[in-house]
Write a structure and sequence with these properties.
Layout (H helix, E strand, L loop, with lengths): L20 E14 L2 E14 L3 E5 L6 H9 L7 E10 L2 E2 L5 H7 L4 E4 L13 H13 L3 H14 L5 H4 L9 H13 L5 E5 L7 H18 L2 E6 L11 E6 L2 E7 H6 L4 H8 L39 H5 L5 E3 L2 E3 L4 H5 L2
Parallel strand pairs: 3-8, 3-9, 6-7, 7-8
Antiparallel strand pairs: 1-2, 1-4, 4-5, 9-10, 10-12, 11-12
Helix pairs in contact: 3-4, 3-6, 4-6, 6-7
The chain binds adenosine-5'-diphosphate (ADP) and magnesium ion (MG).
The site of magnesium ion has 4 residues, from helix 1.
């Protein structure tokens, strides 16, 4: 016997493995072939994501966070991007070798993303409800009025006041925080198993940032999503993430449970980021506590890529690439991780 409960979301044919693992990125490399040379944006990134888990990906601008997300979503422009090696498995299936037609059915219904420039990616010429409804018309073949009804339901879910009255309003009639809620509504519309939020609060003021983070955490909990929170701002994710991976020059240089990472970082770069928290929202500024700038990715320094900016750098740091290794409860790619960890 089948039940006749009406649901917007058909059952997914993708199932996580026995450990609840949804996503498995393994030794991913991405490079951009540009007139100035080959920019090595991602240089062997590996991580996984389980259902019901929030992973923060942290690092300064240019460290490769968005490129990692775009590779997972399958929206990199190739060329100029090239993926010379690595795999990205979703529920065991490699997205990088999947036929485009199948991939399209993953993007949106299974893995969804809130883009870094979310506030400007709403179309100014269509009502917001129409744009949310697009997800249902396109992926579920719904008619206009059913899609609008779904849009109202989602707008209510992301706590937009007077959703029914405002479903046909245009983007400019909403505040920045409300527009971000609309983007979140679109991203969760098809009930994805994985949600990637790329700098979801960057353009918002501090109070609204906290509200958006709380909303994402609530939705993640409710839907048992795997959530990847990408940010340069270590100040906004401490309360919502379970684990964090810190990126520098296209590598993960530190990995830890969120509390350990903040309490006792095991990499000098993480320590610098933490000491810089109040200044990190000033885009393009040199980090107070670190100094210097991230490397040009066409000429990444020998040894540890962070060595020119590191107060602890020794000869070995300029010659030998440090592997990501276990140090206490954390992982760190620093030759002197023990010393960093112990203060
Ligand atoms: N379309 C592109 N063409 C050339 N280089 C790119 C392109 N997109 C990204 N990159 C390179 O990849 C690096 C990482 O970018 P990105 O992932 O956006 O950093 P972030 O950590 O700030 O999100 C950039 O510094 C840039 O050098
Ligand atoms: Mg980015």
């Amino acid at each position: 016997m089948t039940t006749t409960t009406k649901s917007a979301a058909p059952a997914s044919s993708y199932k996580p493995d026995a450990d609840g693992r949804l996503l498995e990125v393994d030794d991913l490399h991405v490079e951009f072939h540009t007139p100035d040379g080959i920019a090595r944006a991602i240089n062997g990134v590996s991580f996984d994501l389980h259902e019901g888990e929030t992973l923060a990906i942290l690092g300064e601008s240019g460290s490769g966070k968005s490129v990692t997300a775009q590779a997972i979503m399958g929206i990199l422009d190739m060329p100029p991007a090239v993926i010379p090696s690595g795999s990205i498995r979703y529920c065991g299936q490699d997205l990088l070798t999947m036929p485009e037609e199948q991939r399209r059915k993953v993007r949106g219904p299974e893995i969804s993303m809130i883009f870094q420039d979310a506030l400007s990616s709403l179309n100014p010429t269509f009502p917001v409800g129409w744009q949310i409804g697009e997800m249902f018309r396109q992926h579920r073949g719904m008619n206009k009025s059913d899609a609008y009804a779904q849009a109202v339901r989602l707008m209510e879910r992301v706590a937009i006041p007077a959703a029914k009255e405002r479903v046909k309003s245009y983007p400019h009639q909403f505040s920045g925080g409300m527009r971000q809620r609309i983007m979140i509504a679109m991203a969760i519309a098809l009930d994805p198993a994985v949600l990637i939020a790329d700098e979801p609060t960057t353009a918002l003021d501090v109070t609204v940032q906290a509200q958006i983070m709380a909303l994402l955490a609530e939705l993640q909990e409710e839907r048992k999503m795997g959530l990847i929170l990408i940010t340069h701002d270590l100040g906004v994710v401490a309360d919502v993430a379970d684990r964090a991976a810190v990126m520098y020059a296209g590598r993960i240089v530190a990995r830890a449970g969120i509390e350990d990472l903040y309490a006792q970082p095991a990499h000098p770069y993480t320590r610098g980021l933490l000491e810089s928290i109040p200044r990190l929202d000033q885009k393009g500024q040199t980090l107070a506590a670190i100094g210097g700038l991230p490397p040009n990715l066409t000429r990444i320094p020998q040894g540890c890529a962070f060595n020119p900016r590191c107060r602890m750098a020794q000869d070995i740091c300029r010659t030998e690439l440090p592997a990501l290794r276990q140090v206490g409860q954390q992982q760190s790619a620093c030759h002197f991780a023990e010393e960093v960890l112990n203060g």
